[in-house]
Amino acid sequence: MKWFNDIKIRVKILAGFIIVAFIAGIVGIVGISKIKEVNKNYSDLYINYGVAIGDIADVSISYQRLKINLDNIILYNDASKIINYKDKINNYEKELKASLLLVEKSIQTEEGKKELANLEMLLDKYISIKDNIMELADSGKKDEALKLMGSDETQEVSDAINASVDNLLKLKSSGGINKSNEYTAEVNYSVITMVITIAIAAIIAIFFGIIISRLISKPISELMNVTNEISKGNLDVKITNNSKDEIGVLSKSMKKMQYKLNEVIEHISFAAEQVTVGSRQISDSTIALSQGATEQASAVEELTASIEEISAQINVNAENAKEANNIANSTKISAVKRNNEMKLMLSAMDEINNSSNNVSKIIKVIDEIAFQTNILALNAAVEAARAGQYGKGFTVVAEEVRNLAARSANAAKETTNIIEESLIKIQDGTGIANQTADALENIVKDIEKVAGIVNGITEACDEQATGISQISQGVIQISQVVQSNSATAEESAASSEELAGQAEVLREQVQMFNIKSNKITPLYEEEDHLHVDSVIEGTYLNNKKFISKEAPRSKKENYPKKILLSDNEFGKY
Q: Tens of pLDDT along 522-531?
């Protein structure tokens, strides 16, 4: 069964279901075949016996009805009724023959066939007698027909027919009962066969179910026990499952986990011892470092006081230079502002001069308009005079227009004289303003030079003050660092003592694990010390290849003799 253990769980479960389905299929096939057989038997019983008895009864009924209608032909004289009776006799005769054919098909025994042949012979005799009776009745010889109807021969044939029908019914009834008993026995046998088949199928299914469940549950139970033991701290447990299915893979993983846990716990125990030793060494070193840091702090404080005095003097010089620079800048701004105002005034005077020239041009245009208006007024007066009395009103208007034109021309001449005088005065003022603007511009240039010199002095003082300030800050920082180093050294000493205590607690906690008797001794290529991060994370610095092999517990000298901690790692641990 080892080969079955190595099969995947999915395949095992699937195989179990396939076997159950196959068995169920066999049971179903057997059941269907038996049901079909029973159905066939009961169909045979119904057709060959139940239906056949009905067919025999139909023969008897058709015969009796034929006899009744034959009697009616003799007894009645109504022609229409006689014709009706004859038709019925023909129909019953046909039904009789059809029923005989059906009975013949259902007869299976030799005795039944002989009895059916006898019945057919008797019916043929009776039909022959019937034909004779009908011929006599048709020819008007009803007395002879009635005599033939009641003759001994006819009665013997009729009684024989009834007896034959009864015999056939008895044969079919007894045969049906026998077949029913036979088929009932077969049904009982089929039921027993189905029960046995179902029982065998159930036993096989339960057998395979038990096997598959054991193959799955047993190794899982073993793994559960292993995990319970590991959870209690017992790592010295054995995993025996070596199958190749999913549980086997899980067992291998559990073995690897157990192996790694043994290894890590042992490394942690050793690391705890190393941390205890290292923390004590760190405590001694930090005490010496604290004393040196205290001496450095006093020297740095004296240097800080001297630098602060120099910084104060440089700051005073820098403030004076800044004040002089501010005054020079203020004077420069004022001079620049006045120079700009003078330039604006010159620009305004130029605009006034241009505007005066434009006004002169406009006045000349007005003078020309007044001249043209005067001419138009004269022309209007001439035209009004030609018009006579109709142009008197227009003459008055033309006169007034001419007077207004004359007044406009005089005003334009006076305005022109005034503007020309103003232009002369504006030109004189522009010359004086230009001279003043040149003088102000020279003053601004001189002030800018002075401001540049003072600004350079100010910047130099600022740079000196900044440099001294930076030196002072640097010294202060050095002092703070020295003081911090001193405090840190004292804290490190206390922390190292605490670390030693925690390492002892860790070692005690690790001792609760029951490790396998054979320890794992780690060997390292190109490395002779154990790195803390590497042990905890399962990897090693610089991707060194980890090699392990079994070693006795007593060979502690094979373990690394020191533990390396960087500054960052010390803070971490």
A: 433 333 333 4
d(CA 139, CA 545): 134
Measured CA to CA, the distance from residue 107 to residue 236 in angstroms comes to: 88
- What is the structure's pLDDT at 283? 65
Q: Which helix (H) or strand (E) holds 416?
A: helix 392-510
* Fold equal for 2-224 and 283-510: no
H or E element at residue 467 = helix 392-510
CA neighbours within 13 Å on the CB side: how many for 238?
Answer: 2
Alpha carbon distance 359, 374 (integer Å):
22
Residue 69 contacts by C-beta under 8 Å, 6 or more apart in sequence?
85, 86, 88, 89, 92
* Whole-number Å distance between alpha carbons of 468 and 471: 5
Cβ-based neighbours of 362, under 8 Å, separated by 6 or more: none
pLDDT of residue 217: 73
Question: Bridge-partner residues for 548, per DSSP?
Answer: 522
Any idea what DSSP says for residue 564? E
Instruction: Label residue 51 exposed, middle or buried (CB < 10 Å: 0-12, 13-18, 19+).
Output: middle
Cα 171 to Cα 53, 195, 480, 537: the distances in Å are: 10, 36, 132, 99
**161: which 2 tokens?**
């027919």
- Contact between 82 and 126 under an 8 Å Cβ cutoff? The reply is no
Closest CA to 62 of 102, 91, 104, 86: 91
**Length of the chain in terms of residues written:** 573
- Nearest Cα to 155, choosing from 117, 124, 129, 121? 129
Q: How far apart are CA 448 and CA 333, in angstroms?
A: 9
Q: Cβ(70)–Cβ(130) under 8 Å?
A: yes
In sign, the C-alpha dihedral spanning 131, 133, 137, 139 is positive
Give the 3-state DSSP-derived string for 177-210, with helices as H, strands as E and coil as C: HHHHHHHHHHHHHHHHHHHHHHHHHHHHHHHHHH
- Compute how many other C-beta atoms are within 10 angstroms of the C-beta atom of residue 115: 20
Reading the block at residue 531, the tokens are: 């790195």
Burial class (CB in 10 A: 0-12, 13-18, 19+), 275: buried
d(CA 573, CA 570): 5
pLDDT at 326: 78
Give the residue extent of every domain in the chain: 2-224, 283-510, 517-572
Indicate the fold that domain 283-510 takes in CATH.
Answer: Helix Hairpins (1.10.287)
Q: How far is CA 465 from CA 280, 317, 458, 506, in A?
A: 48, 9, 10, 57
Architecture of domain 2-224 in CATH? Up-down Bundle (1.20)
- 93, burial (CB in 10 Å: exposed 0-12, middle 13-18, buried 19+): middle
Low-confidence residues of the chain, pLDDT below 50? Answer: 519-565, 569-573
Phi, psi at residue 554, to the nearest 5°?
-75, -15
β-partners of residue 234 are 514
